[in-house]
## 1
Amino acid sequence: MKHSTGSYYAVIFTSELNDNPEGYTEMAHKIEALAKQQKGFLGIDSAREKTGITISYWETLEDIKNWKTQSEHLIAQQLGKEKWYKKYTVRVCKVEREYGK
Amino acid sequence: MKHSTGSYYAVIFTSELNDNPEGYTEMAHKIEALAKQQKGFLGIDSAREKTGITISYWETLEDIKNWKTQSEHLIAQQLGKEKWYKKYTVRVCKVEREYGK
């Protein structure tokens, strides 16, 4: 993951898919590839079992807003929200501290 | 998930496991069960593929601090950080807004 010079933000996207989410995998890859080219993009983590979790990291709230507009446009073209997701939650968060190994 | 009356926090834990993380699954279940009993606990989301992601939600930073002390004590008893994790990152975040369906 790239490092932000100051504070940064995380967008937590949790979802449950419908039983037959046609076109979902292709679109998910496309969206991830596009996210990586956006201004302010720092990194992404994702995993799916019953619940899918994707966390993307961004330099500013403005970067997140721009990305939201773009990604929603893509998904809307595919009517994706209705087709793919049984439910989903988006949480925009400010990372206050981090540690690890 | 329980709803907080005001603002709330998310602890994002991402990790990669070692090849033979002996005792990990049992301990992960034990820790999740214990988290659910803590003051200020609101909910948890988790999924694992190559990367494991666990996000727990809490009412206050004080609740997170208390939980950190307790969970680290449990894990330390098992020497878990050395045995289980190739690497991990913990991010403490303030949830600024959320939406979904």
## 2
Amino acid sequence: MFLEHEPTKQDIIDAHERIRKQIHHTPILSSTSVNQIAGCKIYFKCENFQKVGAFKFRGASNAILSLGEKVLKDGVATHSSGNHASALALASNMKNVPAYIVMPHTAPQIKKSAVESYGAKIIFCELTLQSREETLAKVVNETSSVFVHPFDNYSVIAGQATCAKEILEELTDLDYIIAPVGGGGLASGSCLSAKYFSNKTRVLGAEPEGADDAFRSLRDNTIYPSVNPKTICDGLLTNLSDKTFNILNKELKEIITVTDEKIIFAMRLIWERMKIIVEPSSAVTLAVVLDNKEIFAGKKICTILTGGNVDLEKYFGM
Amino acid sequence: MFLEHEPTKQDIIDAHERIRKQIHHTPILSSTSVNQIAGCKIYFKCENFQKVGAFKFRGASNAILSLGEKVLKDGVATHSSGNHASALALASNMKNVPAYIVMPHTAPQIKKSAVESYGAKIIFCELTLQSREETLAKVVNETSSVFVHPFDNYSVIAGQATCAKEILEELTDLDYIIAPVGGGGLASGSCLSAKYFSNKTRVLGAEPEGADDAFRSLRDNTIYPSVNPKTICDGLLTNLSDKTFNILNKELKEIITVTDEKIIFAMRLIWERMKIIVEPSSAVTLAVVLDNKEIFAGKKICTILTGGNVDLEKYFGM
């Protein structure tokens, strides 16, 4: 079953063993010219090369592989129109388990196609939170499937933590790991791995100014909802949950926010100089570094490139 | 001085030792979903991650590092508005050697800026072959610099050959290496490395239908000029030279041509599935594989992704 407590060091080691065969051990890249521009040594953990093109496959895999065959036979369910949906769909498919994905009927066709290509069933809902929750509850009730929350789930958090664990196994004297903050699953998992697997490395969160609910939540010690977020970072629109808030509140050094304009600049820099495709939500970390050079001067940093799922129609469309 | 004979096995080994410290040993990537689509096992040698974003840095580096200090003090010169220009500019810069690059005044600003950013001097010419050759001759005469031809130069060919050498050191039982054919420097170097460093692997050339002069030249055993080539592959517009024609004529298995439409499809597939940026000239190899599934079914292939220099204004421009 799912972990019922904040992941321990052993829980994260176990998660890594559990998912190791089915995830990619993604490479860590760097660029001389990006280092020159930034004035520090930046490594990039390329989860855009992860299966389904995003780190979310780690958490979804650990969640599914933590459930017994008996529980799994009725399948899993979630609500998401983003990378968690694809991740849960593929991880289910690899175990021959049904997956039910609730998403708004307005979700882009490219997202629907990705989820369907992994064999999951899509159930459409209205755009409201109420419709999403009611639809999910109905699906879970009718199918007896298990709800896998995108981040408010300790097994998912332990899965996401394996990313920072890999970083710390490869790079031993990092000053900072920087993770984008949406619901906080990756950031809180990274905090736990830094605590357990490093003596020196601190974790920083990066958030778009137009979706700074996590920044405000930690500052004011209360979970704010994400109301009408305005950012290009479509993976960072959700607010924190109880589980992620509590971990970040104890372990995260701080969250730094940055404008969309600077995020787009950083994203273009990654595409141009590193020749890799990252989504806007991934570029918020480099944007924070470039916007705060005095903090990072001479430091050794690893940013997590969380995903590479962008709609390329704009480039290739005729 | 430059090699004056077709590179031997030892010449390629020496070239690799000579340039090893200043080039990137680029990774070889693969994608389960691309393999499924293609029906064979395809590896991608990522020269888009090479310095200056293209394999050309290997040949330019070997050329410059093959020249003595006395010869080098007056610098090097070439005509190119593409990746060879950037490659020669950077390799010269790393040895503190002046570089003179002749390019048409109509060259895109992005190409001019790249060359200038590496400290080279640009000399503009008219669009005609005559103007280009006269301008180059004048520059060489006035500066006493050494002309480094983009491909009709055995030291350049030996440098490009190190790419296939790295492939064959990592992948021992390949059926084919597929290289794009422009002037033929990479393809002929790849042929030599396959001959020297493998018992089994054959080299295939890939060429756009709209610039199929090399295909016709090898078929008819004569070097045709490239007249009004029509293709999106801006790195594959030139014709073969004596040196590259002679090597390809002896060693290349064959050249297969493919339409631009299929090249664009293959390019998009690489961007979407592999999350890496390649230029159109790089995608011609995958396009050939996808267009000839019966030839490649079940085979083990490595295609060379020659470069990643594309103008991203179309994606990021406002």
